[in-house]
Amino acid sequence: MTFVGNSAGLNLSGNKLQIVEIAVKGNEVILENADEENLEDLLTADTKESKFISQLQGAFENFSLRKKPDFSSVSFSLPADFFLFFTLPIDPKLLKAELEAHIRWEFSILFPKEKVDEYIIQKVTLGAKKNNLFVICIKKEDVKKIHKFCMRNNLRLKFVDFSHLTVHNYLCNINLPGETILSLYLGFNMISAAHIKNGQVEQIRLLNIVDRKEIHKQISQELTELFPDLNASGEKVSFYLSGDELTISEAFEFDTAFNLQFKKVDPFVNFKKNAVTEYFDGEESNTKFISAASMALRVS
């Protein structure tokens, strides 16, 4: 951790806003707050700016009533419908300008109705060979909405990211050398699966949730097709399951469908608790805050 003071991560998931506030003092990370608030309406990328900011403001004020915020900077994670994304094979020897041109060309082919200049583009290198990119695109106007909310509350906006990616990156940071992970993350209307090895995402796959009640069947049927290389390698794999929408019954159904015990990540396990947050100690349900916690911790 390279910053000192308080920071917060906010995660938007459909009609719910979550907050994790931390304080960093020396080598200690202290959990100051973890809370969530249901919104009046479902917020999507199509929500008008005035309504979007108003809904966030209402939730933030309710957070403040329960625990006065003591931070000046915040990072946001957003659900899948705020983004366009694609995986792109690349030549690692490409120059930066050549790579940028290649990404813009691919964007124009995949999304002919969209204007690339209206988007902020993030690139994530996949695999040890660095010959694939996971490309995430968010409209500049959506980032401006969040920035205006932050300005209204005298907050500095540090980062905006895709909630699924923040979770897989969190697992990369706790990944033991040589460990192979398959991470499943349930969002509001999408599930993602990531193959992680030696602290790096090798592959990432995204699936729309067809039927929430049958999601464990959907993913168990498609997982072999999603990661043929992983299945063929014969490696010992650690399975992780998390999600801001994950319920205890869904977790049980996943364990049953796969005939194994998924690990549930407690993002607060290495945090020091205070009088406000001590009741979060050892709670399996803490996993729902993993995206907000990852954003609170983010420094780059």
Descriptive account of the structure:
- The strands form three sheets. The chain has a six-stranded mixed sheet with strand order 8-4-1-2-3-14.
- The chain is α/β, with parallel strands linked by helices and about 300 residues long.
- A hairpin with a 2-residue loop joins strand 1 and strand 2.
- The radius of gyration is 19 Å and the shape is globular.
- The chain folds into three domains: about 140 residues, Nucleotidyltransferase, domain 5; about 55 residues; about 90 residues, ATPase, nucleotide binding domain (Nucleotidyltransferase, domain 5).
- The chain contains eight helices and 14 strands.
